[in-house]
Amino acid sequence: MTNEPSKSQHIEAPADDNRVLSGLLEIGRGLKTVLSHVGREAVTLEYPEVLPDLSVRFHGRLCLLTKSDGTDLCIGCKACARVCPCDDLIQIEMHRDGDKKPVIDQFTIDMGRCIFCGNCTEVCPVDCIKMLPDFELADYSREALVLDKYDLTLKGEDADEWRRTHGLAPSVT
Amino acid sequence: MSDASPPANKADKTPADDAPEPIQHGPLGKALADKGLTLEALGDDAVGNETLGVACADLLGVAKALRDDGFDLLLSVSGMDYKEYRQSVTHLYSTKTYQTVTLKTDAGGDDTVPSLVPIWPAADWHERESYDLMGIHYEGHPDLRRILMPIDWIGHPLRKDYKEEDPRLVWNRR
Amino acid sequence: MTTASPAPELSLRDKPGFSDLQGVTVEHGLNTQDMVVNIGPQHPSTHGVLRLVTTINGEIVKDMEPVIGYLHRSKEKMAEGRSYFQYQPTIDRVEYLSSFYDHYVYVTAIEALADLKVPKRVEYIRMICMELNRITSHLLWFGTFLLDLGATSPFFYAFREREAIFKLFEDITGARMMYNYFRFGGVNADAPPGWLDDVRKVINELPFRFDEYEAIANKNPIVMDRCIGVGVTSYQDLLDYGVTGPSMRACGVAQDMRKTNPYSCYNEVEFDVPTATEGDVYARYKVRMAEMRESIRIVHQLLDNMPGGDSAELRKLEKEHAKVAEEIAAAKKRVTVAKKNEEAPNAADVAKMAEKAPELPFDYRTTGQKVNLMVFKPPAGEAFSMVESPRGMLGCYLVSDGTPKAYRVKWRGASFSNLTILPSMMIGNLYPDLMAIFGSLDIILPEVDR
Ligand code: SF4
Ligand code: SF4
Q1: For chain A, which has fewer Cβ within 10 Å, the N-terminal or C-terminal residue?
Q2: Which residue of C63, C184, C249, C397 to mutate against B (max B Cβ within 10 Å)?
């Protein structure tokens, strides 16, 4: 591979004799640029009133999708808990009923310690644990940030809507 | 991490026969060996950087020869813990030939390795870090102190057998 | 006064302690006394948590010792207790301003170990992400550097453009700063439809913005007075301290891993390595500004030559392939279970049809080989991979013993080495130049402390 040094555009220093004049000129040029920004549209948002336009892939609050009829989709495989970089962040308790069907007794996620990496959403074999474009999670206590199954679950139609917007097959039975 | 032996180099592995042939020196190792320096060929790593095993006594000689060959940039010094012994791994880069070379030096029972600061002053902080986290002593280092951990820390945290023993660290317990 | 001390003298260490430094000296007929000033650990201009124990005499810095470790989060120890995939999100926090690079070294080290082939489309997406990341990193540097020098408005402008690029990152990775996007042998997900056009829109705009920045800052008398001839280093100094990146290129040496050891697909794109010869703060400024323009040039070429083009077309192609595959499967089924009053298709014809079934070219995919992230274990061995990050050479030394957890991960952060030169650049210099010199090195403390 050739390694030819190429010069960056060379920026001349103004001649020393008229430094005052050139300095004033340059400051004027800078000010002109700054002033040209005055008329431009603001890029900031007035946050609580105007919410940002977040992408569909946004890493926000976690949720559990359900089947189209509103029953649990999660099969309790604990894959999500195993790839999570934080210890014991996702805690799952499950048992199997008479037909060997998994029943999730408890599913808690400590959103206070979650780093929103998205590892859990990637390994879930049934596309159950997913992320919502929701970042407003502040609360008054750490305990309130531990979300249980009820808080996390996204019921039937909402889950279908989520799947539709994310390019998955909407109805799951 | 059940076996205590160091992870075998990728190039070492010849799946067909049990007794692998001795690894031949790469071009760099050969050039150094021709100069009368003793070093052990360890093959290439997965990326293709030549790896040389050097004993403590020969390290400074090899390092000097390498620097004269154009390896003028010391990239990093990493301490390795293989449970029975510790190892100092030095990565060097040549701004002339754009090669990277790895030097591996096993520390003896007293965890001592000659310091490379006289040859590459850049080794200063890297060796301090290796001492701090792995407990390898660099002989001839001008100022071997802790660098990342607080000066009153107990133990060397990157060792495999490290346990947090400091009774002051109650806040860290869950 | 403006040159750094030539030999890398370990000045503080030659002296027994600070108390010995407190002699009274007479300079220019003035009685001055050594004084120890403690800068940091919390200081707005250190962009992190860095403490500088500085001895000054009048305005002249006599001695300086950086104290680091306040941000040490044991990233290397964390790797030993986590599986490869589990460890990956935490890499983002090593160097949060350009974390695509950290992911890239980690992922390439593993790919080299496990011999995973990477499709070209993946490499192109990675390169676009990395080059855009270089721009955001340099933009932040530009803003804060001028803020350190006393100019406030460039900071806002730089952040505005940075935000536009962050929006692109959010669209493709889902996060603005902590991406966790590269995977072993691929990327997490393909670029969303229309993303390439969005990128093009943003980078078409950027050169005009850079023109504006340069109009504000390039010849500004204050910037020039504080930068030109300040913090001059020689090439040998930089080598001795292991300083790499723009600081090295500002000394006239085109040492850039993208050119010298082309990784990824950098040998397929055309670009120059900007260099300057003066070796002072202003030269570093020039190099970084020129580098951003080169990055834009690279991204333009990547967008034009993206294998597979926009992902909307690719999805269409995939759908067509899926339809053909379905037809073949149906035909195969009919061969085995032919209905009573229906003629079974010839088995040989079906086999021929299956052979001719179109397949997505390997280069168009977004994952090379499927790896099971849960139980992924590369074979035993070691790899030291490097990239040219915005701050210099970034390396990752990864040792695997064949278990799902890494035996050892060592980070070679560019900032760690770059910080070592600061004392030698400062000693003998004016104290007010500290922030200009320190700012020009572009150090990020989380990478120093890891
Ligand atoms: S997003 Fe990451 S940190 Fe949060 S629960 Fe999932 S895996 Fe754990
Ligand atoms: S990975 Fe999915 S299916 Fe398995 S336990 Fe987690 S949420 Fe349930």
Answers
A1: C
A2: C397
Main-chain phi, psi angles of B165, to 5 degrees: -110, -5
Tell whether B47 is covered by a domain. yes
> Comparing B169 with B156, which gets the higher pLDDT?
B156
In this complex, the residue of C241, C261, C379 whose CB is nearest that of residue B121 is C241
Q: Is the pLDDT of residue C108 over 60?
A: yes
Number of domains in chain B: 1
User: Could you read off the pLDDT of C346-403 as tens digits, one per residue?
Assistant: 777 777 777 777 777 777 777 777 777 778 888 888 889 989 888 888 989 989 888 8
CA of C62 to the centre of ligand 2 (A): 61
Domains in chain A, CATH or no CATH each: 62-165 (3.30.70.3270)
CA distance C232 to chain B (A): 18
Token look-up 């992924």 returns C376
Residue B8 in any domain: the answer is no
> φ, ψ for residue B80 (rounded to 5)?
-120, 145
CB of A58 shorter than 6 A to ligand 1: no
Tens-digit pLDDT profile for residues C131-147: 999 999 999 999 888 88
The single-letter DSSP state of residue A66 is B
Q: What is the pLDDT of residue C424?
A: 87
**Would residue B4 count as lying in a domain?**
no
Express each pLDDT in C336-345 by its tens digit: 776 666 666 6
Sign of CA dihedral C151, C154, C160, C162: negative
The CATH number given to whatever domain includes residue B62 is: 3.30.460.80
My answer on whether omega of the bond before C44 falls inside 30° of 0, hence cis, is: no
User: Strand, coil or helix: what is C347?
Assistant: helix
pLDDT score for A17? 60
Global confidence as pTM: 0.85
Residue nearest to atom 7 of ligand 2 (CA): A129
**Chain B residues touching residue C416 (CB < 8 angstroms):** 125-126, 129
In Å, how far are A5, C78, C196, C246 from C253, measured between CA atoms?
Answer: 7, 37, 34, 10
Extended strands (E) in chain A? 6-7, 62-65, 90-96, 102-110, 129-131, 146-147, 153-154
Give me the interface pTM, i.e. the ipTM: 0.83
Q: What is the pLDDT of residue A99?
A: 81
Owning domain of residue B132: 15-172
Please give the residue of chain C at the shortest CA–CA distance from A31: C216
Phi, psi of C72 (to 5 degrees): -70, 120
Q: Which two tokens stand for residue A115?
A: 């780093």
Mean pLDDT, rounded, for A53-73? 85
Average pLDDT, chain A: 80
Q: State how far the Cα of C413 lies from the Cα of C71, in Å rounded to an integer.
A: 14
Query: Is there an atom of ligand 1 within 6 Å of A108 CB?
Result: no
| C-alpha–C-alpha distance, residues C130 and C300, integer Å | 13
Which residue's CA lies nearest to atom 6 of ligand 1?
A120
Ligand nearest to the CA of C374: 2
A117 C-beta closer than 6 A to ligand 1: yes
Does a structural domain hold residue B5?
Answer: no
- C420 vs B125: CB contact, 8 Å cut-off? yes
pLDDT tens digits along B69-79: 888 888 889 88
Which of A82, A129, A130 to probe ligand 2 with, by most ligand atoms within 8 A of CB? A129
Closest to B127 measured CA to CA, from B101, B148, B98, B155: B148
Whether residue B10 is predicted with pLDDT greater than 50 in this model: the reply is no
- Please, how many CA atoms are within 13 Å of residue C23, restricted to the half-sphere of its CB? 7
Residue closest by Cα to atom 7 of ligand 1: A84
| Shortest Cα–Cα distance, B83 to chain C (Å) | 12
Segment B73-88 shows an average pLDDT of 87
Q: Are residues B98 and B110 in contact, defined by beta-carbon separation less than 8 angstroms?
A: no
Q: Are C447 and C274 in contact (CB under 8 A)?
A: no
